Amino acid sequence: MSTAHIVTKQTNNSAPINVYRLVALHCRHDGKEYSNSALLYRDGKTSEVEWTSKALPDTRLKPGAIVSQRFGRLAAATGGNIKISRLVLLERPETAINLFDLVPESWVANRDLLERASELWTHLPYYFQAMFNAIFWCGDRFKRYCVGQSSIRNHHAFTNGNLEHSVEVAEIMLSLLPLYPDGNRGVTIMAGLLHDAGKADEYFERYGDTVLSHRGRLLGHKVTIIEWIAIAREKIRVGVPDAIYISLVHALTAVGSTAAYSGMREAKTPEARLLSHADRLSGTARLVSVEAETSRSSVSAWQRGEGISANDHRERRPAQRFPGMEELSRLIRSGKQNATM
Hints:
The chain is of the alpha+beta class. The protein has 2 domains: 88 residues, CATH 2.40.50; 232 residues. Helices cover 41% and strands 16% of the residues. The chain is built from 10 helices and 10 strands. It has an 8-stranded mixed sheet with strand order 1-8-5-2-3-4-7-6, with no helix packed on it. Helix 4 packs antiparallel against helix 5. The N terminus is likely disordered.
């Protein structure tokens, strides 16, 4: 089975020209050879390609994989499809690729949310871009991160809820970062995007309900993301400074208050404190929004003589920019002033 490793410079914040997300793959054998077709996605566009082969295509070519086309001498379009010589799996994470540019609409219909996530990624330092891509190069894991919910029955408990919450938290943290002159911008964005990423392996669907996985019950998403970060750091070919790495891990694992002998640590750095504030604000604001919408729906349904489903609040909702930023900023300033007295 063939693999490829490409190094391409990124231009205009878009994916390199010959890198795609594999959306669907179909193979048919006529007794002599395989007729193969695939649906590919990149930068808001889908394309269909086809090729023939004597052997079954690489079995690792599954929906969600990142792939590259290979062309023969007589590349052509047949019946609207592009004729290629084969499709190649890209195994090795590449820093030049913004993974959010390879998210099809079947994963995330809210393209504004996706653009915000993509923009956050572009502002990461190169070593965090490499780490993020190493963590999520696996298509299945990245899909779960983008599609999954952020809780079972609490805040952001709907399709794309985890991505929406992560983007909100990162944006809130960036908005409040000027209050902490010694804060690190890269750690701030990375912590916001990754703080609940482990929930991609914490939940799964069973008989139509979202439930905790075995890992979710015994370990939890904080342990999971630290595992992923440690493995990714070993994979990437660019070094993450030790002080920056420790600051990121601290931000992701710090707790509000605990006894020192427990092994956990209270939030000590600007990024850890910002994450605590932003995480709480995002979750609380979403719950308040859901309650308000449910209340309005209940009144309207009552006026029309209709009922209201108890699960309406779990439907997909569009991401919105965050209210209450000024109030949170005032509270943080007040807390910092009290700490210096």
